[in-house]
Amino acid sequence: MAGNPERRAALVDAGVEVLAREGARGLTFRAVDAEAGVPVGTASNYFTGRADLLRQIDARLHVRLAPDPQVLAGLLERPKDRSLVTAFMHDLMGRATRDRTGYLALLEMRLEATRRPELRASFTKSVRGDLEEGLAFHRSAELPGGDAVVTVLYLAMLGLLVEHLTLPDVLDGVLPGVTVPDGLVETITAMVVPQE
């Protein structure tokens, strides 16, 4: 296996682009090489196989889509109420919108996990870890609502993200006077998170 970390990172990011654009079936080493602008055969020197590439894409997406620690620190200076939870959800929506390709690749990973048991196990562990991290963060930050609120918020935001990033016109005008996505983020948090 080749050991150039910068080249590996560039190949993984190229894999994210291919996965988001072509889906899992289009994710080949040749396509990754072409996206990265490297000679044919380069990706095969960095990954043991497609499953290895998918695992590394999964890890990379969690880095790309993670919240900025400085943004979190700034938000945590605010009162611990529903408006703070709303601000966190706006940050989530903003990150996913800014890295639409990364989020679409994450959705493709979900679909591919339904077809590949070995990927399903590792991806389930990864996504479950994210959910548990969110639950723990909510608790430690002493935000309003418990684990059930966080879980329902997670599910509602996941639905909003999927619609907004894949078929945004579905939501336009569905609730008169409510903007997409910001007004829907406000609506979701107002309905799910208790006011304390």
- Overall SS class: mainly alpha
Average pLDDT metric: 96
Rg estimate, integer Å: 19 Å
- Beta-strand content: under 5%
Counting DSSP E segments of at least 2 residues, the number of strands comes to 0
Cα-to-Cα separation, first versus last residue: 54 Å
Outline the biggest β-sheet: none
Summarize the structure.
With 196 residues, the protein is mainly alpha-helical. Helices cover 69% and strands 0% of the residues.
Question: What do these coordinates show?
Answer:
- The chain is mainly alpha-helical and 196 residues long.
- 69% of the residues lie in helices and 0% in strands.
- The chain has 9 helices and no strands.
- Helix 3 (50-64) runs parallel beside helix 7 and helix 8 packs antiparallel against helix 9.
- It is elongated and about 55 Å long.
- It starts with a helix and ends with a helix.
- The relative contact order is 0.11.
SSE order and pairing:
Blueprint: H1 5-22, H2 29-36, H3 50-64, H4 69-75, H5 82-98, H6 100-115, H7 117-140, H8 147-166, H9 182-192
Helix pairs in contact: 1-2, 1-3, 1-6, 3-6, 3-7, 5-9, 6-7, 7-8, 8-9
Task: Give descriptors for this structure.
196 residues; mainly alpha; elongated; 69% helix
